[in-house]
Input
Amino acid sequence: MSANGTNGGIVWVLDLSGWVIGTPYQGTSNQSTVEAVLYAYDATNLATPLYSSPVTGTGAAPPAVKFTVPTIANGKVYIGGQTAFSVFGLLPN
Output
């Protein structure tokens, strides 16, 4: 969650459904081939997302990593992935 003092609360959710569950014994490597999707919801109304990142292409989060959580600092949202690191926020003027 993030907020501007007591106003503007946002709940950040990272959809990691692209994570492939398995073990080396099952012939999988426990790695995702699908990007995670970042969602933002108004903390007072979780019914409609304020934002969702694209599934692929420019602006997409990196491929999912199990137990990854969005980190919020200085007005930006940071997402770590398997081989990349994404930063979401407003572009400078």
